[in-house]
Amino acid sequence: MTTMLPWFANNAFPLYLAPMARFTDITFRSFCKRQGADVLVTEFVMSDALLRDDPKIWETVAFTEEQRPMGVQIFGSCAKSMTAAAHLLEERIQPDFIDLNFGCPADRVTCMDAGSSLLRNPSKLAAIVEAVVKGVEDTPITVKMRLGWNNESIVANEVARLVEEAGAQAVAIHGRTKAQGYSGEADWETIDAVARERSIPVIANGNICSAADVLHLEQKTACAGAMIGRAAQGYPWLFAEIKHYREHGILPEPPTIAQRWDTLLDYARQVMARPHNEEYGNDLRWMRPKLLSLTKEMPGARRLRGDLGKVVQLADLEALATKHLRQLATNEIISE
Ligand SMILES: Cc1cc2nc3c(=O)[nH]c(=O)nc-3n(C[C@H](O)[C@H](O)[C@H](O)COP(=O)(O)O)c2cc1C
């Protein structure tokens, strides 16, 4: 039986942090939570990898109690293995919900007929959802999808109806097709049209970048929540900004560059201390993409990009922070 997920009660319009592979790790999620993200989802993991008991995969889906409500996202192409993986997740870590990925456009995923590939076969997709819903005891199952495979096959309405009928309790729609990848405008109008037809909550996703965007979706559409991806990657303070704007009608003071560096250094220290990092020792080069995304909104980001390319150890990163703040103080970099 479908019950209302509690974070949608009283038209709360929750803010989700979008699942982002290699970015929304446990440390980053905690930071977003403290900034006001209401619902978190792990990056996607392959159901077969969970079943193989790969410790790295189980570390990827780990979460802390303070992160609840917390979803774990899985992908796959086979109802049996996705159901078994969902059952195992429920038994071992009891997430608040399990999210099924039908949106990933990456070739390595679509070539195994998983992710967005299943949008080309709505009845198979619905059969997977139904099997997973039946295969868990009482964990809500949700879905994340795109509008369709390409502009000639927009299936969002049909798929949302099928997954609701199959027992999914919410559906997040990224307002782009698989063919669009991550570029072009996200189509919120189509998401809204789907939301008007459905009784389960429909969460809007794609290019939500500001408090004004969230207020627009909340006030002018039938969507039940907003899911924020790349805008939070470089600026996780966005969640606090949206909530402040909602409450007071004005934007809060942004964090200072020194505060941003403190956060970034704290983040790097925590990630380095995680078991997963053992194989890298003191070498933090593997997390460069994470550091680049956290500095991309800082003044002088282009120069920083080059400097980050030379960072190997935590001490180098700390020295870079000191140098960058000094350059800002002496106007070597113009602070915007
Ligand atoms: C680096 C990166 C990794 C992503 N990984 C996932 C993922 O694991 N699962 C998923 O459903 N979507 C994933 N996405 C898609 C996002 O969740 C989101 O749907 C997309 O970025 C659109 O939202 P945005 O415009 O707010 O970024 C990823 C996106 C990016 C940029």
Chart the SSEs and their pairings.
Layout: E1 15-17, H1 26-35, E2 39-41, E3 45-46, H2 47-51, H3 55-60, E4 70-75, H4 79-93, E5 97-102, H5 107-110, H6 122-135, E6 141-148, H7 156-165, E7 171-177, H8 188-197, E8 202-205, H9 211-220, E9 225-228, H10 230-234, H11 238-248, H12 257-272, H13 288-295, H14 301-308, H15 314-329
Parallel strand pairs: 1-2, 1-9, 2-4, 3-4, 4-5, 5-6, 6-7, 7-8, 8-9
The structure holds flavin mononucleotide (FMN).
CATH architecture of the largest domain: Alpha-Beta Barrel
CATH superfamily of the largest domain: Aldolase class I
User: What is Rg?
Assistant: 20 Å
Q: Structural class of the helix and strand makeup?
A: alpha/beta
Tell me, what's the shape?
globular
Biggest sheet architecture: 8 strands, parallel, barrel
What is the spatial order of strands in the main beta sheet?
1-2-4-5-6-7-8-9
Task: Sketch the topology as an H/E string, one letter per element.
Answer: EHEEHHEHEHHEHEHEHEHHHHHH
What this model shows, in words?
The chain is an alpha/beta fold. The chain has 2 domains: 6-248, Aldolase class I (TIM Barrel, Alpha-Beta Barrel), CATH 3.20.20.70; 257-329. It has 15 helices and 9 strands. Strands 1-2-4-5-6-7-8-9 form an 8-stranded parallel β-barrel, surrounded by 6 helices. Strand 8 (202-205), helix 9 and strand 9 form a beta-alpha-beta unit. Bound molecules: flavin mononucleotide.
